């Protein structure tokens, strides 16, 4: 009974869910249009951007057929979005700033949807964080694979997977051990993820790269005696 109540509390409104899918599909479709892809390529990248993360999530959760296949509105919505990007790609490309903000909000929504579904499945906290992050960035990974290029999330640049990871972690802690109400937690996490994404683009923040701590410590130890000698 408690799980059913939680499911009702965590249910994302259909309009919000479809809006997130539309923005994801727009991002993928616009990229395909810029690359000069045929209509099939635009449609394929729109599907990966709008539904890719959810498909990966549902396959990992193994909870029946993926929602993208069972919900009658998802695929038609992506198809219409792909058609819009195919015929109006030039006009949409001028809305770069708006698309960045909408994409950031979508990243937050997908993070919350994935993490909450993992919680309802009774998965441990680490798995909830993983599913939330994968749901948010899975579509981008599929898109980059289709483009035969290195996945954007593994390269230095504005926060993407990092923002989703922090958001999913915050949701897991706030809705798990702290036991806060799910809807306020969801809203807070969406704002957190979107803000991190937008600020990283605006301020030029980049995800941290691998460090060689022993080498860095050795370099600092060598540099200190040199500075002391110069002062003398």
What does this protein look like?
There is one protein chain. With 232 residues, the protein is mainly α. It contains 10 helices and no strands. The chain has helices spanning 2-10, 14-34, 39-61, 67-70, 74-93, 96-120, 125-146, 161-175, 182-203, 213-231. Helix 3 packs across helix 5. The longest helix is centred in the middle third of the chain and has 25 residues, at 96-120.
List the helices and strands and how they pair.
Blueprint: H1 2-10, H2 14-34, H3 39-61, H4 67-70, H5 74-93, H6 96-120, H7 125-146, H8 161-175, H9 182-203, H10 213-231
Helix pairs in contact: 1-6, 2-3, 2-5, 2-6, 3-5, 3-7, 6-7, 6-8, 6-9, 7-8, 8-9
Strand content: under 5%
* Major β-sheet profile: none
H/E topology pattern: HHHHHHHHHH
State the oligomer: single chain
Mean pLDDT: 82
Q: Compute the number of helices.
A: 10
The general outline is: globular
What is the rounded Rg?
21 Å
Helix content: over 70%
Give the end-to-end Cα distance, rounded to a whole number of Å.
76 Å
Low-confidence stretches: 1-9
Helix and strand composition category: mainly alpha
Care to count the β-strands?
0
List its salient traits.
232 residues, mainly alpha, 10 helices
In short:
This protein is mostly helical and 232 residues long. It contains ten helices and no strands.
């Amino acid at each position: 009974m408690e799980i059913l109540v939680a499911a009702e509390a965590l249910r994302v409104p259909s309009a919000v869910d479809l809006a997130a899918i539309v923005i994801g599909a727009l991002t993928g479709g616009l990229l395909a249009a810029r690359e000069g892809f045929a209509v099939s390529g635009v449609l394929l990248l729109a599907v990966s951007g709008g539904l890719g993360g959810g498909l990966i999530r549902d396959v990992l959760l193994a909870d029946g057929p993926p929602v993208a296949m069972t919900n009658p509105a998802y695929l038609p919505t992506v198809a219409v979005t792909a058609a819009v990007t195919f015929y109006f790609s030039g006009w949409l490309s001028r809305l770069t700033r708006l698309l960045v903000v909408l994409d950031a909000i979508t990243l937050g929504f997908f993070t919350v949807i994935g993490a909450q579904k993992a919680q309802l499945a009774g998965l441990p906290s680490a798995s909830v964080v993983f599913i939330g992050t994968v749901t948010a960035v899975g579509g981008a990974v599929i898109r980059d694979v289709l483009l035969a290029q290195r996945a954007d999330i593994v390269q230095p640049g504005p926060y993407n997977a990092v923002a989703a990871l922090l958001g999913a972690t915050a949701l897991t802690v706030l809705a798990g051990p702290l036991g806060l109400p799910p809807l306020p937690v969801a809203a807070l996490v969406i704002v957190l993820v979107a803000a991190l994404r937008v600020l990283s683009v605006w301020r030029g923040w980049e995800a941290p790269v691998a460090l060689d701590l022993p080498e860095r410590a050795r370099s600092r130890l060598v540099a200190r005696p040199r500075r002391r000698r110069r002062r003398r």
